[in-house]
Design brief:
The structure is a single chain. The chain is an alpha+beta fold. Helix content is 27%, strand content 24%. The chain has one domain. Helix 1 runs antiparallel to helix 2.
Length: 139
């Protein structure tokens, strides 16, 4: 899948995202990381992961003080990893090429007012996130 996603955390309706909790990012992504661990943390504190889900699906995830980027997530279980990360961070997923903002109920309350009208609120599970971003999975 050629999509790129962004994950941001907003607090109290503020317009600027807050830095993600790096301990949470590492706790969720490191068990799935198949990249070179020596390259996980850059000199500037940014992080990059090449994750693989149990079904073999993969994605590249990059994190810095502004948020996270997810490149080329495969269909399937990799969305469960992304949903867990998003949920544990209290963040939202942005897909600028398609849907816009996808978030759970709790994160919705923290969105800036101008983002709320177009937000898609879901139970933050892998299946629900994938469906919101790409449409329902076909058998």
């Amino acid at each position: 899948m050629g999509m790129s996603l962004m994950i941001f955390k907003f607090v109290d309706g503020g317009e600027a995202p807050v830095p993600p909790d790096t301990a949470v990012v590492r706790a969720v992504l490191e068990p799935h990381d198949v990249g070179d661990p020596r390259l996980t943390v850059g000199e500037d504190g940014s992080m990059s992961f090449w994750i693989r889900a149990p079904d073999g699906g993969e994605a590249e995830v990059f994190a810095d003080v502004h948020g996270l980027g997810v490149s080329r997530p495969s269909a399937g279980d990799v969305f469960a990893v992304i949903a867990e990360l998003t949920s544990r961070l209290g963040a939202v997923v942005l897909n600028p090429s398609r849907v816009g903002v996808v978030c759970g109920v709790e994160a919705y309350t923290h969105l800036p007012a101008e983002m709320r009208d177009d937000a898609v609120v879901i139970d933050m599970t892998g299946e629900a996130l994938e469906a919101a971003l790409t449409g329902p999975r076909r058998p």
